[in-house]
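User: I'm writing a short methods note and want a consistent example. For Transcription factor CBF/NF-Y/archaeal histone domain-containing protein, I'll paste the sequence; you return only the structure tokens, no commentary, since I'll be parsing the reply automatically.
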Amino acid sequence: MPATATDVRIATLCTLALYIKYFVTLTIQGSTKFKTASRPPEDMSFAASSAPQQRAFIPETSEEDLEAAKAREARWSRILGNDVENLPFGIIMAWVAIVAGGNGTVTSVAFILYTVCRIVHTIAFANAVFLPRTIAFQVGVVSTVVLSINAIAGFLKRHSTEIKNFQGGKGGVPAFSPSPPNPSTMSSKDDMNDDEIREQDRFLPTANISRIMKVSLPNTAKIAKDGKETVQECVSEFISFITSEASDKCQQEKRKTINGDDIIWAMSTLGFDSYVEPLKLYLQKYRESVKVEKSDKKDNVGSFGASS
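Assistant:
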């Protein structure tokens, strides 16, 4: 299932956590340079004269302390370098997986695991603990690979769906025809082959299309015939696109009937999120009206039986 709004929020929080971790690492690495006097001279003089805790910015003088300060600076420089080499790939792959239509659950789990591993790696590296640092690094690399594979899988699935819906094939629609078939030349469905039936079904009544289009236009506006036919084709393609996605869900769940919830799920999956809530309200009202109608019929039948 492609990424949902929750998956996007999780990715946002993970990205923020990694940036904060990187900023903290950068700050600590920069501060270690004061003790080894490797900062630019103007930085050293400003910190020594203006910093609230001047002692922290005064270079070490004894040889032993200076060597320890250099070792600490080198360690934090390696930590920072490791972040610069690895963080961009993990973050980019996570967001690419979301955009490409990769499985949302896989993306969220892999990105959370990657974020935790990068934080553990930094803490272990700073404290010179070998095994946790190595494991965290390796698991982080595996998480990045999983995100990459998930992104590729999402892209291939979406691409195959688009081909199926827009270029024909199993569950798709036939190629575009420049003009609708003439109903007068078709006496009945018994006289038509399968291709002709499918071609006729692709076109909605022009009067309905025109009426819907005019709702959004000024009273003086007009619609050309090719405009109506273009919208006609768009609507047909859109219906096929949504229905095909809903059909895939039914097949995965081994169901034969597509219901309103499947259509709404397909709309959300294909990125039409702004339409989901209004459609949910409409579906709820429709189902309530059906229940009321059935209840009224039962009451009428009961009263008729009692009177007779």
